[in-house]
Design goal:
This protein is of the alpha/beta class and 250 residues long. It folds into two domains: 144 residues; 93 residues, no CATH class. It is built from 13 helices and eight strands. The strands form two sheets. The chain has a five-stranded mixed β-sheet, sandwiched between helices. Strand 6, helix 10 and strand 7 form a beta-alpha-beta unit. It is globular and about 55 Å long. The relative contact order is 0.17.
Length: 250
Amino acid sequence: MKNSQKNQEPVSIIACKILQSALEEMLPEPLRERTQFMDYGYHRTPTLMNQTLQAAIDAIEEPGRIVLGYGLCGNGLDGIKAGKHTLIIPKVDDCIALLLGSRRAYLREMQKAPGTYYLNKGWLESGSDPLKEYREYAEKYGAEEAAWIMDQQYRNYERLVLIAHDQNDLNTYRPQALEVARYCRQWGMRFEEILGSDRYIRRLAEIIEDPEKADDEFVVVSPGGITGQELFWNCSMTASEKSEKEMGSC
């Protein structure tokens, strides 16, 4: 009886806008109507992300399960209170792991080049990138001050990567990404392309439709609980990732 009641609990989704196009393709209409996509710009200020997500969670009146389409994201999800809800969150460092398909793939790329700035369809369409940031700062502070701000932010980066889930997206967004890459050459950033995987996003869509399927790739916070960094970091390799490794997958 208890599991039957749980299955009847309403499910709401709050996700980063960079996942919007992929998630909307996978979710049925009733669930799309229960989904909020938050502006990517909150990644620039994790404290503001935290406050905005908490307000969105608190605004959902009916107790139920809330699936968050985020990772720890610069500690933006550290200290989030579940309140009367159950929170289900991908157990990843940030949204990049969702685009690459697994936390293991993300860590592999981090080992290659820790100073990497990632672009994808969502960021280029509705988010931000160094070139857009420079133009915004230049309009607000002038070119010289903008250049100084950008140098402080990006001088330690070494790589700019465009992630796409298929060749068509790579071809479509390459010209825009290359424009950003030309701007970033001033810091010696090299440009690369990666065909990612929608595996984790598909898993997220699966959990949204049936929260009971949440496994060790997800953090589950019960009503009254609070998220913490240790919930995301205590995962050297999940069972799902071990299975992938044995099959030779990424």
